[in-house]
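re the bet — no i am not wrong, look at it urself. input seq straight from the record:
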Amino acid sequence: MTRARSRNQGFTTIELLVVIAIIAVLVALTTAGVQRARLAASRAQASNEAGQLGAAISTFMRDRNVKHIPSRIVLREKLNYDLTNVVERESWTYLVQVWPHLAQLPGVFNNNGSTPGAHGIDWNGDNTIAPLNTAWTLEGDQCLVFFLGGIPAGGATRGFSSNPRNPADTNNSSPRFEFKANRLRLRSANAFNGFLRCDPLHGNPTNTAGDVGFPSFLDPFTYRPYIYFSAYGQRAGYNFFGTSDCATFGISPYIQVAANPPTMPNPTYFQPGEFQIVSAGADRTFGAGGLVSALIGTSSPDADNVTNFSNGQISNTNN
C-alpha cells in the first residue's frame, strides 16, 4: 500500500522549478520597472536642463540687448573677417553688436577694408593669438556653450570679461550658465558614434590630450550634445544660411504640422523667431529633423528626442 508523502519530504524538483520561474519573472518585471523609472527621470532631467538653457539664452539676449544667439558663427582671433563671405560678415556684425568696442580696436578689419593690426581676442583661451589664416566655424551645439559659458578654460568655461575691449580678458568673468565640466566635451577626429570622443563600451565621455577647440555640452543620459538652432530673431529665420546649423549631426530644425502642410521656403517652425534645443533621447540618435507629422507614433529616431518645445519628447508633441 502506497503511503501519502510526508510533509517533511520538502519540495519536488518540479515545484522548485516553478518557484524559480516565478522569482525570475518577478525580477524581470522589477528590473524593467526600475529601468523605465530611470529613463523617465533622465528624460525629465534633460527636459528641465533644456529649459534652463533656454532661460539662460533669454538672459543673455536681454543683458546684451540682442535678439538672438546665433547657431553658426566664425571666430577669428585676429578679427580679420572676410566681409565678402556671408557667414563671416554676419559673424562680425553679431560680435560687434555684443561687444561694440571690438570695432574700435586699432587696425581691426572692418567695412572700410583696413587690415588687422597686432590686436586680437583669445577666443579659445589658449593664451595665444592665432594667425591670420586661422578661423573656427562653430555649429549650434558649440555656439550654445560659447555664448552661455564664455571662454574655454581648463576643461570648463570662465565666462566673458567685463573689459569692453577684450571679452577674453581673465578679469571679472561670469558665465551665464554653469556648465558641468564633466559633460563638456570637444569634437574629435577620432570620434565615436556622434562626433564626440566617447568610450564605445559605456558611452562615457572622455577628452584626450591634444583635443583643442570649442566644447559641446552633453545631455545627462545619452552623452550626446544638446543641439541648438537659432531663428536669428526672424519668424522664418531657421536655416538662416541655407543649410542646417548642426549639419555635422545630420539634423535640421523641426517644422510643425499644419492644416495645410508647410512647403518651402516658408515652413512653420516650432518656436518661430526664437530657438530650438534638442537632446537625442534614449536611443542616442537625433534623426533628420524637419516635419514632425511623420514622427509621431512611429519608430523614427526623432520620436524620442527631448526638446524645449515639446512637453517631454517629440512623440508627445500636440499639433
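see?? Residues 37-72+139-316 form one domain. told u. also Confidence is low (pLDDT under 50) at residues 109-117, 189-204. so pay up
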